């Protein structure tokens, strides 16, 4: 009990003295803040990207790719294979008995970004009649769906927001062909909002890809639908195709890019953390030095070294916590919901939002507190070992 | 209880500096009776502070015995010395050594935090100690808001708050002007007379030494003991 009151008295004293060394203390706070801010900006970017891509996927939709293909772009299926897939087990059917299956073709078109005025890749997806129904939360926000057989486009909300001339009614040239925007669709912020959709046969013919299909999306008829469909599509000698749930496919795609963002962010933040650590050490050593006589006086009165140790450590942790919290708060204010585009795995622009989460903030604070802990530890040992006689002689 | 509070016998103290051995005391004997008020004078470097530090258990002799109330404190380890200091010794320094972040009452409370006392008991003792040094009305003031004399009175309150028998003062008036110094010295004298504190005070100032019951002159590690006559 008396140790606790000694420690709390010294801690109170040290924390109050932070204001006395205002500038060095502030520099530590700012350094920790910047580290946390930078780390969180990268983590929020990676997280937002991953959420966007992963959010597009459904568990009850299978995506079929050529064996060994890792993305839609390097996949390709024949017309016969598409037909055979429609006859497979595990696939759901509509009221008319037609398989809920969407063969899709994915071509790269050009768009001009509003922000930079530069050209960027835009994915144009030709979808089958069942295609729209396979997307979650699909909403035609403006206008209507394209009519089959016509050169009409529906445009994802993200594309309309980030690219020039994709508003309702706009006439657009893609490749060598003319299109009309008849609708704007939303899918709850998922990756599809970065796409243009049109009728598959029209895309095939206007882009001279007659009968070519890259992927097939199929609605599954139950929890074991995926396994049945997969067994069929991988084992049938005429197929030998890869089947994944759409969720799995997207999360594979997202993890590469978001991993890359994280692998940039962490080393940068850690390099900065070393700089902040040097600053924190310096601040705390000078704090201990300036308190030498006070510490020695307490020791003469009968205090042990432990209160001085804890007091110094807590002071350092307080500085780090203040910096970390400001950094996290600033990151949340500036970065959460910030819209960005980046190259997705298919070399097209993906529109996504930075997304903060308590878990990321926790990681940022852990890094910040680690700076405070390590930066306080060595000076705290020094404080605990202030020699009484020499310390009292200090002026 | 014997009349002797502190006894030094054959005390030797030396420092090793590089290859050199600096000897400060080769053979020091000294007896301080309970209730004494001793002034220690001597030229700079004669070992006054070193002696005071040994009496207060923050320095230990290289050889020889120091006993306090019959207990061999020279044989205590650091932990025991810490505890012993908090029970028996109050320190008063030339530059007061108050904690700038704490107000007068909080400074005075510091030694009490080492004791198993309740917050209200501590508050009572702090108030009583501040009363003794006539600073009850300054309890909430911070050191920077007080004069040197007031700060030294806070330091005295801190030294006596846990009721130690021994007060050790190293140049307690070295930083104060005459009038204020006299105030402080009168206060120490009062603590000696009324509360029976045993006081050892190092000073350069013969006028200060006159407040003590006797003065010891230290020179080259040896005492020249004599009754100090009123000049
Ligand atoms: N840690 C140490 N290492 C080496 N020498 C020391 C140490 N502490 C004190 N000394 C020496 O011991 C001698 C006595 O020092 P001390 O501080 O006791 O003198 P003093 O009488 O208090 O002097 P002053 O009047 O200047 O305060 C001095 O020569 C000093 O240099
Ligand atoms: Mg001295």
UniProtKB/TrEMBL annotation, chain A:
<feature type="transmembrane region" description="Helical">
    <location>
        <begin position="22"/>
        <end position="45"/>
    </location>
</feature>
<feature type="transmembrane region" description="Helical">
    <location>
        <begin position="300"/>
        <end position="323"/>
    </location>
</feature>
<dbReference type="InterPro" id="IPR050250">
    <property type="entry name" value="Macrolide_Exporter_MacB"/>
</dbReference>
<dbReference type="GO" id="GO:0005886">
    <property type="term" value="C:plasma membrane"/>
</dbReference>
<feature type="domain" description="ABC3 transporter permease C-terminal">
    <location>
        <begin position="269"/>
        <end position="387"/>
    </location>
</feature>
<feature type="domain" description="MacB-like periplasmic core">
    <location>
        <begin position="26"/>
        <end position="230"/>
    </location>
</feature>
<dbReference type="Pfam" id="PF12704">
    <property type="entry name" value="MacB_PCD"/>
</dbReference>
<keyword id="KW-1133">Transmembrane helix</keyword>
<dbReference type="InterPro" id="IPR003838">
    <property type="entry name" value="ABC3_permease_C"/>
</dbReference>
<dbReference type="InterPro" id="IPR025857">
    <property type="entry name" value="MacB_PCD"/>
</dbReference>
<feature type="transmembrane region" description="Helical">
    <location>
        <begin position="364"/>
        <end position="384"/>
    </location>
</feature>
<dbReference type="GO" id="GO:0022857">
    <property type="term" value="F:transmembrane transporter activity"/>
</dbReference>
<keyword id="KW-1003">Cell membrane</keyword>
<protein>
    <submittedName>
        <fullName>Membrane protein</fullName>
    </submittedName>
</protein>
<dbReference type="Pfam" id="PF02687">
    <property type="entry name" value="FtsX"/>
</dbReference>
<feature type="transmembrane region" description="Helical">
    <location>
        <begin position="329"/>
        <end position="352"/>
    </location>
</feature>
<feature type="transmembrane region" description="Helical">
    <location>
        <begin position="263"/>
        <end position="288"/>
    </location>
</feature>
<keyword id="KW-0812">Transmembrane</keyword>
<keyword id="KW-0472">Membrane</keyword>
TrEMBL record, chain B:
<dbReference type="GO" id="GO:0005524">
    <property type="term" value="F:ATP binding"/>
</dbReference>
<keyword id="KW-0813">Transport</keyword>
<dbReference type="GO" id="GO:0022857">
    <property type="term" value="F:transmembrane transporter activity"/>
</dbReference>
<feature type="domain" description="ABC transporter">
    <location>
        <begin position="6"/>
        <end position="229"/>
    </location>
</feature>
<keyword id="KW-0472">Membrane</keyword>
<comment type="similarity">
    <text>Belongs to the ABC transporter superfamily. Macrolide exporter (TC 3.A.1.122) family.</text>
</comment>
<dbReference type="GO" id="GO:0098796">
    <property type="term" value="C:membrane protein complex"/>
</dbReference>
<keyword id="KW-1003">Cell membrane</keyword>
<keyword id="KW-0997">Cell inner membrane</keyword>
<protein>
    <submittedName>
        <fullName>ABC transporter ATP-binding protein</fullName>
    </submittedName>
</protein>
<keyword id="KW-0067">ATP-binding</keyword>
<dbReference type="InterPro" id="IPR017871">
    <property type="entry name" value="ABC_transporter-like_CS"/>
</dbReference>
<dbReference type="Pfam" id="PF00005">
    <property type="entry name" value="ABC_tran"/>
</dbReference>
<dbReference type="GO" id="GO:0005886">
    <property type="term" value="C:plasma membrane"/>
</dbReference>
<dbReference type="InterPro" id="IPR027417">
    <property type="entry name" value="P-loop_NTPase"/>
</dbReference>
<keyword id="KW-0547">Nucleotide-binding</keyword>
<dbReference type="InterPro" id="IPR017911">
    <property type="entry name" value="MacB-like_ATP-bd"/>
</dbReference>
<dbReference type="GO" id="GO:0016887">
    <property type="term" value="F:ATP hydrolysis activity"/>
</dbReference>
<dbReference type="InterPro" id="IPR003593">
    <property type="entry name" value="AAA+_ATPase"/>
</dbReference>
<dbReference type="InterPro" id="IPR003439">
    <property type="entry name" value="ABC_transporter-like_ATP-bd"/>
</dbReference>
<dbReference type="InterPro" id="IPR015854">
    <property type="entry name" value="ABC_transpr_LolD-like"/>
</dbReference>
